[in-house]
Every structure is written in C-alpha cells, then in structure tokens.
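Practice problem: predict the structure.
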Amino acid sequence: MSQKAVVITSLKHADLVSDRPLPVLRDDYILVKTVAVALNPIDWKNVEYIAPPGVLVGCDYAGIVEAVGKDVKKPFRKGDRVCGVTHGSNAVYPEDGAFAEYITAKGDVQMLIPDNLSFEEAATLGVGISTVGQGLYQSLQLAWPTEPITQSPAPFVLIYGGSTATGTLAIQFAKISGYRVITTCSPRNFDLVKKLGADAVFDYRDPAAAEEIHRFTGNELRLVLDTIALEDSAKFCDKAISTDGGDYSALLSVEIARENVRNRWTLAFSIFGEELKFGNSLFPAKPEDKAFAEKFWARRRSCSQRARSSHIRFLCGGRIARRVGGHAGNEGGQEPVSKAIIHPVVILYLHHPHRSNSLVVLMPILIFVLCGLPVLLIEIFARSGHTWTG
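Answer:
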C-alpha cells in the first residue's frame, strides 16, 4: 500500500509523491493518520541546506492513532487524538516525518490532545514545546509549570526574541512557572508579548536596550533564553546578564565569551534518543534528553488544558505559499508568529474526519507550492488575548 507525501526528491527540491510506502511501525513508535500538520522554519531549512533526497519532510502534526508499538509506555489506544513532533527530513530514518497521510512518531514523547484544543491548534505545539522544554527547563532548570517557583521576588528571565514562534511559547511557560519575564521584540509587537505575560519589553534594535535591561533588573538577570541565536543576539544578552554571571541557553551553538556565564544550546531532535545526522555531522544519541522530554511532555498536557491559539485565519493555498516563500531575507528578525513570512506556523489539512479523504497537494516555490483539490490552510496567529485562560 502506498500513500501521498512530501518528499525531498533531489537536492534543494521537495515534491509531492503518490507512491510513498507506508512507514514501518517500530516497537517504540505509534502509527498516526494525520489530520493537520504545521510548517516550521526547520522544514524549509532542511530542504534548502541539509537533508538528502529520499527523506520525508515535516515535523509538527496532529492526528489519530492507528496502531501502537509494543514498547510504547504511554497508554495510547487506536482512535486517540494525539499531537507532537517527528524528526522530519531524517537522514538516518528517511521514513520519519510529518507531511504524509500516515506517519510514525516516537510514542513516549507525543501527547494526547486536550479536549479544548482542535487538531489545528494542537499541530502547532510539537517543535515549539520541545524547544521550550529543553531551553527553559532542561538547560536553564526553571521551576516546572506544574510546580511554580515560590521565591519572592521571583527571579528574572530574559526571552530574547519574544515575538517569534518559540519566544511566544517561552514567555507563557516562564510566566506560568512564576518568573519575572523580560523580553525583546519590535515596538509594534509590544502589546502582543505583554498579553502573553511579559513583565517588561524592550526594542531589540535600540542600541541602549541591553544596558537598559541590565539597569531594570538591578544587575540580577541570570537566566537567558536566546531564541534568535546569532552573534549579535549573544552580544546583546552578554550586556544584559548580571556581571556576577548566569546561564545562557540558545537554540543554536552560539556562546557568550565570559567565564562566569554557562553556555548551553539545544537540539530539539535529540528528544528521540537516537543518533542524528546533519550533512556530514553525526551526533550520538542522548538518552538523557529523551528521558527529560518524556517527563516534560507528560506534564505538558496539564498546561495545555489552559492554552489555546486564537485568531485563526483561513487562507487560500496560493497566498500562503507566496508568504512562506518570503523567508530568505528575514532570518534573525524578531517578527510575530502571525507574519508567517519569517516564522511560519501554517496548518495544512490532509484529511479531516468531516471532509473527504482527498490529500492536499503541496510542493515548493522555495519549498512548497499548492496544487490539486481546493483546500483550506490555517495560519495560527499569536495575537491572542486568550492564550492562557481557564
């Protein structure tokens, strides 16, 4: 039996194919019939820079469990609504990925979808939640959202890049964990990040902003998550962090060159506890990252009962494809999730229970161009007054 899927067919090019074999269910994986998937920056970066031909594209998904591997510890059952993350464009296991009718996902780092979340909302959680978990709770060791810090006054934490996809999630998690949240973004996004929970926000383009943060925190800032992870952002964070030192966690391997600052960087795909290959670079399996992710995702569902994305807008395929194609000139900016040009979180209906089983046809202009039957794409906006309610 074969299926439709988005696959890298040649270097720097992905296509829709209709003869992709169904994935083999490994013992610690679940088989999922996809309902919605989300497009992340890592997806087009994999196509453009890293991944070899033959791999399945896509990381974030939501869907319905079809089968459960014998070594999965979580009590998933056929018919469960689930969401999470897969290792899309995986050079070691080419069948892994999200952009297909049927996919497999590492069972114990996936999550049941709370009743108050739709498939579309749930599909946006995987990569972002995994990254925030590693950055805030494994690297910086913040108090867990289920066990907020009781210290008064609460410690400061800086989320550099607060209006990015990861930044918006990080603000909410840090706030729920009881911290005083400082963030940076463009002035037009100040209201957005304040609604999400930021206590103070600064314009990252202002040359004096880092020193202003240093003064605002009274030289007490010791926890920093850098969601931009460029040389300039590291320099900014270096100026803001306490002269007594602290912890700096970035989403890429950039560092603050100061002896009293502990540098860490995260690689979300390490949560699967498997060997990773990117280009010619091999990364050994990290069982400790998998163990952490299992614990974090288990607790994450209780937080999800209060979380939902709002301002969902339905767009035609051609329009959103043009917007996604505008990513290249904007890397490193701090734009809101709703822009989609820079940090796109785009939901694609593959086959909804209330629709026919027609698969959306997706392939790239730079990455993907839509064709085939008319379908709806959903863009999740972070401009929300309802993000942490209930």
